[in-house]
Amino acid sequence: MTTKNVDLKSSLKEFFGFDSFKGMQEEVISTILKGKDCFVIMPTGAGKSLCYQLPALISGGTAIIISPLIALMKNQVDAIRGFGESDSVAHFLNSSLTKTQSEKVKKDVSEGRTKMLYVAPETLKKDDTIEFLRSVKVSFVAVDEAHCISEWGHDFRPEYRRIKQIVKEIDDVPMVALTATATPKVQMDIQKSLNMLDAQVFKSSFNRSNLYYEVLPKGSKAQTMKDLISFINKKKGKSGIVYCLSRKKTEEVSEILIANGINALPYHAGLDAKTRASNQDKFLMEDADVICATIAFGMGIDKPDVRFVIHYDVPKSLEGYYQETGRAGRDGMEGDCILFFNPKDTEKLEKFLKDKPVAEREIGTQLISEMAFFAESSQCRRKSLLHYFGENFDEDNCNKMCDNCRNPRETIDATNSLSTALEIIKLTDGKVDLKHIIHILLGKATQEVKAYKHNLFEYFGIGKEKSENYWKTLIRFGQINNLIHKNIELYGLLSISKQGLDFLSKPKPVNISLDKEYEPISDADFNTIQIEAVYDKELYRQLKDLQKTVAQEMGLPPYVIFQETSLEDMAFKYPITMDEMENITGVGKNKAQKFGIAFIELIADYVEKNNIERPDDLVLKSVVNKSARKIHIIQNIDKKVSIEDIAKGQGLEYEELIEELEAIVFSGTQVDLMYYIDEIIDEEGRDEIYEYFKSEDTGSIDAAVQEFNGEFTHEEMKIFQIQFMSDVAN
For residues 730 and 667, what is the distance between their CA atoms, to the nearest angstrom? Predict the structure, then answer.
């Protein structure tokens, strides 16, 4: 062992209390201390931060750490101060500091007390920052979360592109770039941008053997929330992160989790700085179990015992997914990574790209398609994920740590089919994508297929007896096993690899499981969702009879008491308290109090007589809908604004506003639309329509329009019915 190694190990023990280095840490640190550039790719939890922290502490001068997030800087600085003799050992310089605080930081750096200075890229590019850093001794520059440099990465930051140029203005010092996620393309992009093509590259395996990967079908909001709550309840008291794509969704999900007894908090860039910092600290200090966050949360957050990471929405790329799931199990212990997936979510992501420049849109679309590929795949999740990052992995080493390996699907022989697909990919000469190849196989003479004259191929239509999913599965299998190359830069064009040519000359037996097909579902509202589970048919029959009895006693049509979807939900959830009844689809507080007692008594009696065990995780408590739209609509009705103007103000079609009004009234809120109705019909005519609604059992609007010989439009009759419901049911 060399003296340098002994010195490094003793320094490691002195500053951090560790007896030995992890993985490539020692080699990286030695390279930095020799004044050489290096590029470090290590998975989250492998100890990237120590690679620049230790050399900074033992070198002369101050190391500049360029970091993308203020929250990350604060977290890192707080952590490193715990190892130093004074707080001056590490500082950050960014827009969150006052002028006095900034001056204090600069004074400590100038006097040589600060070994690490964390700087945001936006702060670094300022002239006064550059001028200040030129006046002090800089030991080296570290670029943390370096994937932010690349437009191919999942969090592109244009400011990062100028880093090398700015650093040269300060001093000619070594540079180290670090990231936990980089495909070969992203890696090259980072190195070019930082002018580090000659840097020594340190790349660890991306495999996190302690993480379990699972993809669950994402249904309606209500069903997905039930699944989410059920999973979190099984991890009672353990720390977890739920990632959502929008700020609104993080707050919505955290509110529902709280309503269901889970200690959760939201985190997103739209919260004020104080609340955001407070919520992060509560999670780190274990005053909160679950944080519901956008991707703004997590970069560099050093919480080792996050036991689960759940993606409520599909991420924009596999880089993002890998980075975010990497927050779980950083201590090497168990970590569950759950992704809720529905094709509708990827469609939404693609719609967000429609206004982007063409190149950016094409890149974004390819990244989204790779994410869908991962979610739908029936192959080992770990193999799929690592293949994306340019790493070959034998699925036998997964050790059943993904849902596909733990619960393998039935396989079929596809040796001949794979040869056929490879032959077509070879003949098309890397000029077409997956969809085009499938169209040739299925014999679909699309415009593009005709343009290439591929409809004249001898193979055209050769695979039409198989499904589109079959061929998609097979071609994806070829990709993951390196028989087919997909060029993401060139819009996903497919070409055959050397291994693919070898397979054609000497085929080996191939068995595949078909990829999962998810049924697209709209993002239905909690209050209008159809019950997806099988409800208790006998209880439903008894509730239906009770509905008729109550309706007769009150002289009202049955649908006014409760809608059929509400009765189905009762026969599914077995509500036996007023709180539970208020959370039934389409009920709400007012309606529960007005009609609910008899139904609760019947259900409680039925549950007791039949020894029914009510599954708690299926009784979803929703939060009161106080959406801005609902409040706006009710306020404008109170002001007697015309229905057409309310619709216009909310950017809704007239029919859409009527649907909103119906949902508001069905959930138990009263409205007064008489000012609008009085303009359409006189009092005598209105009473006649009300009498009709009282006597008509189905509530059919078409039947009502027909009854009055088309004197009123469908929309006008609906307004009359909504007011009738508000008057008699609420």
Answer: 9
Using CB atoms within 10 Å of the CB of residue 616, give its burial: 0 to 12 exposed, 13 to 18 middle, 19+ buried. exposed
At 666, list the tokens.
Answer: 């069905």
Give domain limits for the chain.
3-203, 211-357+367-379, 412-512, 526-618, 628-729
447-468 residue pLDDT tens: 999 999 999 988 999 999 999 9
Return the pLDDT at 383: 95
Using CB atoms within 10 A of its CB, is residue 328 exposed (0-12), middle (13-18) or buried (19+)? Answer: buried
Strand order in the sheet with 175-179: 90-93, 116-119, 62-66, 138-143, 175-179, 38-41, 200-203
pTM: 0.66
Q: How far apart are CA 601 and CA 373, in angstroms?
A: 50
Q: Poorest-confidence range of 254-258, 401-405, 432-436, 484-488? A: 484-488
* Position 585 pLDDT exceeds 90: no
Closest CA to 582 of 621, 547, 535: 621
Give how far Cα 513 sits from Cα of 224, 345, 468, 518, Å: 26, 24, 14, 15
Same fold for the pair 3-203 and 211-357+367-379:
yes
Whether residue 474 contacts residue 418, with contact meaning beta carbons closer than 8 Å, is answered with yes
Half-sphere exposure of 547 (CA within 13 A, CB side): 21
One-character DSSP codes across 398-436: GTT-BHHHHSPPP-EE-HHHHHHHHHHHHHTTT-S-HHH
Q: What would the CATH number be for the domain defined by 526-618?
A: 1.10.150.80
* Residue owning tokens 């679309």: 365
- Per CATH, the number for 3-203 is 3.40.50.300
pLDDT at residue 523 is higher than 80: no
The full length of the chain comes to 730
Predicted confidence at residue 522, as pLDDT, reads 53
Whether the predicted pLDDT of 524 surpasses 50: no
pLDDT digit string, tens, across residues 336-364:
999 999 988 888 888 878 777 887 788 88
What is the C-alpha to C-alpha distance for residues 370 and 707, in angstroms, rounded to an integer? Answer: 55
Does 245 score more than 60 pLDDT? yes
pLDDT at 336: 97
pLDDT (average), residues 172-185? 85
Report yes or no: 68 and 148 within 8 Å, Cβ to Cβ: yes
How close are the terminal C-alpha atoms of the chain, in Å? Answer: 83
Give the CATH fold of the 412-512 domain.
Arc Repressor Mutant, subunit A (1.10.10)
Does the domain made of 628-729 have the CATH classification 3.30.40.10? no
Fold classification of 211-357+367-379 (topology level): Rossmann fold (3.40.50)
At residue 393, φ and ψ (nearest 5 deg) are -135, 135
Q: Which burial class, exposed, middle or buried, applies to 511 when counting CB atoms under 10 A from its CB (0-12, 13-18, 19+)?
A: exposed
- Tokens read off for 556: 């009202």
